[in-house]
Design brief:
Rossmann fold, 14% strand, alpha/beta, three-stranded parallel sheet, 93 residues, NYN domain-containing protein, 3 strands
Length: 93
């Protein structure tokens, strides 16, 4: 079983983009906190916030919504992988 479920990166250094891509390939959620609005890290991350948004409490307010979407997506993925039309047809016969 996966041990890491989420990586939080506090940086604006685009050199970390490859690490975020690797995390996403391994189905690890990615969150970036940094001040570059159009930075490469924010384009790769699942969720990104500026320091201003963190200080103002926006990140804290949105956490339930973000985590809820992640959980919904996980449930849908499990359903996709568990559905076998041939097996379902056999069960129905």
């Amino acid at each position: 079983k996966r041990q890491v479920e989420c990586v939080v990166l506090v940086s604006d250094d685009s050199g970390f983009a490859e690490i975020l891509w690797e995390a996403k390939e391994r189905c690890v959620r990615t969150v970036v906190i940094g001040d570059l609005n159009e930075g490469a890290l924010k384009r790769v991350a699942d969720v990104a916030y500026s320091w201003k948004e963190v200080v103002m409490g926006k990140a804290k307010k949105e956490v339930e919504k973000v985590v809820g979407k992640w959980k919904d997506r996980d449930v849908l993925k499990k359903l996709e992988w568990s559905y076998d039309p041939v097996l379902e047809k056999e069960r129905g016969s």
